[in-house]
Write a structure and sequence with these properties.
single chain; alpha/beta; Rossmann fold; 2 domains; 5-stranded parallel sheet; 10% strand; globular
Length: 254
């Protein structure tokens, strides 16, 4: 009898263990209830994660490709300007020699006191005669801005667009913005106020025309080299202006 009782206890214990493993319920007599299914197992769905940053909650930064500027492979630079361009070419600026040293072939057209309207006309003539390569430098706007009526600003906007249409999408146009007024002089605020709207136009147009590069000459410290008229420079100023334009040209990426 003792042996039978011990065997019943072992059998009952084994049945309880098996029931726990397979999930069956167990009757008081140690038998699993017939026809009863094991309880379901709750599963938490884990979504697939394609990027670890999604788990951290941080955005993935997309780096845009380098901006492509057309026409740089031609190594030909056509420059249109006023007396400031005369200064960088003839008055110690060394503009052409800097370009040649960098492997470019320069052609420049410039006249004292000229407006942007004249410069656009010169660009049109040069395009017709085949003088223009893939790079165009427009160094105009100072005479437009200097003591001219407000209508000249509206005309300047049109001239910038006209120059860009003439140059076309296969060329890069580099435009030098305006620096007028020497700090510490009585007319500095007035001259600065004349130039700023024109520089704003160039900044806005650069966002419209992808092949327009603006040389921010206005932000350079070369105002210290301005002469008594606060628009023209000493030899050092012209040399620095030439170097700034050449740097812009060489930085254009093919």
């Amino acid at each position: 009898m003792r042996g039978d009782s011990r065997r019943q206890r072992i059998t009952l214990g084994a049945a309880l263990v098996m029931a726990a493993v397979v999930g069956f319920s167990v009757a008081p007599d140690g038998r699993a209830r017939a026809g009863e299914a094991p309880p379901a197992i709750d599963r938490v769905a884990v979504p697939a994660v394609a990027d670890e940053s999604a788990v951290r909650g941080t955005a993935v930064e997309l780096v845009p490709p380098p901006r492509h500027y057309p026409g740089c492979e031609s190594r030909r630079v056509f420059t249109v300007g006023d007396s400031l361009t005369a200064g960088i070419v003839n008055l110690g600026g060394g503009y052409h020699s800097m370009l040649r040293a960098a492997g470019y072939t320069p052609t420049s057209v410039y006249e004292v006191g000229r407006f942007t309207l004249w410069g656009v006309g010169q660009l049109r003539l040069a395009l017709g005669s085949g003088q223009v390569g893939g790079l165009v430098v427009m160094a105009l706007g100072t005479n437009d801005a200097y003591k001219t009526p407000p209508s000249y600003l509206a005309a300047f906007k049109l001239r910038v667009d006209e120059a860009m249409r003439l140059a076309g999408p296969d060329r890069t146009v580099i435009w030098v913005n305006l620096q007028m007024g020497k700090p510490g002089t009585a007319t500095y605020p007035e001259l600065l106020a004349m130039a700023e709207p024109f520089n704003t136009v160039l900044q806005e147009k650069a966002s419209v025309w992808p092949n327009l590069v603006v040389v921010d000459w206005a932000s350079t410290p070369n105002r210290q080299y301005l002469g008594s008229d606060q628009m023209h420079y000493s030899t050092i100023g012209y040399r620095n202006r030439a170097a700034a334009i050449v740097d812009a040209i060489t930085s254009v990426s093919c």
